[in-house]
Amino acid sequence: MDGAWSAAAVRRAEAQLMAQLPPGTLMQRAAAGLATECARLLRERSPGRRRRGVYGATVTVLAGPGDNGGDALFAAARLAKRGARVFAVPVMGERVHPVAAAALTRAGGRLVANPPRRCDLLLDGVLGIGGRPGLPGRAIDQLAAIDAGTVVAVDVPSGVDVDTGAVPASAVTADVTVAFGSYKPCHVLGRAALHTGRLVLVDIGLGPHLDPHPAVRVARDGDLAAWWHEPGPDDDKYTRGVVGVAAGSEQYPGAAVLATSGALAGPAGYVRYAGTAAEYVRRRHPEVVCTQEVKEAGRVQAWLAGPGFGTDEASLTELRHVLESPAPVVLDADALTLIGEYPSVLTQREAPVVLTPHDREYERLYGSAPAEDRGAAAAALAKRLNCTVLLKGHHTVVASSDGEVWANPTGRPQLATAGSGDVLAGFMASLLASGMSGTRAAVAAAYLHGRAGGIAATGHRTITATDVAKALPQAVGETLSATDTPGRRR
Ligand SMILES: NC(=O)C1=CN([C@@H]2O[C@H](COP(=O)(O)OP(=O)(O)OC[C@H]3O[C@@H](n4cnc5c(N)ncnc54)[C@H](O)[C@@H]3O)[C@@H](O)[C@H]2O)[C@@H](O)CC1
Ligand SMILES: [K+]
């Protein structure tokens, strides 16, 4: 697992570490890591660039008044020593880190008000973790005027809200963000994550001093491998888990087919379908055992209810039957509309519930649209309804009822396609049926679904939900074989 820590938590860790080191050491570590990444980027081939390498490259620094500007100026001084033409523009009056500015000047760089209109690399050293959302006017003007080959954000893209990932005002949009010591929530959450570009972490030795509980967690391949239940020699189709799918209708049979496709791609050994689209499911997936009603389906270890399911009296009755079962459930789509109208159906449930709203469904459940702090928004709904909440978006967030927040690192905009959520929900129910906790099932499903979207999109501009379902087994295979985790059963 990776984590992202708030500005205050990073400052506490930095204070502990700085007390053990000579003054200025951390800034030099940060600047050295940043200069190395910049040099690497300048060596890369880039369409708009006339030459490759550091020597002779044009590097412009937007320098704010604090230590973030200091990092940028020290890194630029290292590039100037290697022959780069460096122009640094103070963007908050004349206030810049004085020692770093002097180092840059000694190395041959220049402090200017008007840099060249084109540069190979633009370093955003306007604001770091001390920044409030928004940019000073001069930074906005320079960003509009400069044609930069590559934009590198120093620690965070300036202007974003570091702790929440909100972007309420203007902010830098980076190609690469070089983060120091740890990730921050803005790198992985909300609109700010769209401003981050590719993320590079520079180790400055902060790790041992960081709080063991990050503000936001980010799953990695190794987590998935450790959580995944591989069948053993004594397992059969029942012990691997039976998943029940209550989805689709005569009007929307596709939702039933897609949700069962997702369920079949998961680790459960048996998929049952209950609903009025049974004929369609049977034709598409002969391995699914179909009934017309939830009550006829027999025992399952987890249910999915909701996609294409309808919101009438009959649907409400079926939803009540699902919720009466002692198994964990995933509630999606029409089931979310129903619990928005009849919240009492959720009370008295002991087994885990995972809700998978998009923003409009969230609003129906919570009474207002999700706040720009999407981690907090998901956590507030999870707490209120005592459920796990997976809040869909370009960066999907999962929150547990006890306030744990996870940001999903996989996924792409093409996944916003009809039926893609049905596949996700079916797959998640299969993970629950295999014995994963609600929060892990939600985190793992989002992760693998995003990865499957990447596989399906390779070489294509558009993808369908069916493509994503077909790519899920490969996504699972690649993820589980990427690491060798001791806890995993073979
Ligand atoms: N503390 C440390 O040990 C280290 C800090 N480092 C760097 O230091 C950064 C934090 O530096 P600072 O604490 O000096 O803070 P910043 O450089 O983020 O901000 C400096 C000042 O900008 C002003 N400001 C904030 N928001 C503004 C806005 N929206 N518009 C206009 N002005 C605004 C404030 O007066 C603030 O004090 C980190 O992000 C990182 O880049 C690194 O050098 C690593 C070590
Ligand atoms: K910055």
UniProtKB/TrEMBL annotation:
Q: Where is the YjeF N-terminal domain?
A: 10-212
As recorded in UniProt, its EC number(s) are 4.2.1.136, 5.1.99.6
* Residues the record lists as binding AMP: K392, G393, H394, H395, T396, G421
Q: Where is the YjeF C-terminal domain?
A: 220-479
Renumbered to this chain, the signal peptide range is: none
Q: Cross-referenced CDD domains, in alphabetical order?
A: YXKO-related
The entry's K(+)-binding residues are N68, D124, S158
Q: Could you say which residues bind (6S)-NADPHX here?
A: D67, N68, G69, G70, D71, D155, A255, G308, H358, D422
UniProt keywords (A-Z) are:
ATP-binding, Isomerase, Lyase, Metal-binding, Multifunctional enzyme, NAD, NADP, Nucleotide-binding, Potassium
What cofactor requirement does the entry state?
Answer: Mg(2+); K(+)
Q: Which reaction does it catalyse?
A: (6S)-NADHX + ADP = AMP + phosphate + NADH + H(+); (6R)-NADPHX = (6S)-NADPHX; (6S)-NADPHX + ADP = AMP + phosphate + NADPH + H(+); (6R)-NADHX = (6S)-NADHX
Q: How many cofactors are bound and how?
A: Binds 1 potassium ion per subunit.
Q: What does this protein do?
A: Bifunctional enzyme that catalyzes the epimerization of the S- and R-forms of NAD(P)HX and the dehydration of the S-form of NAD(P)HX at the expense of ADP, which is converted to AMP. This allows the repair of both epimers of NAD(P)HX, a damaged form of NAD(P)H that is a result of enzymatic or heat-dependent hydration. Catalyzes the epimerization of the S- and R-forms of NAD(P)HX, a damaged form of NAD(P)H that is a result of enzymatic or heat-dependent hydration. This is a prerequisite for the S-specific NAD(P)H-hydrate dehydratase to allow the repair of both epimers of NAD(P)HX.
UniProt family annotation: In the N-terminal section; belongs to the NnrE/AIBP family.
Q: How does it assemble?
A: Homotetramer.
Name of the protein in its database record: Bifunctional NAD(P)H-hydrate repair enzyme
Which organism is this entry from? Glycomyces niveus
Q: What gene codes for this chain?
A: nnrD
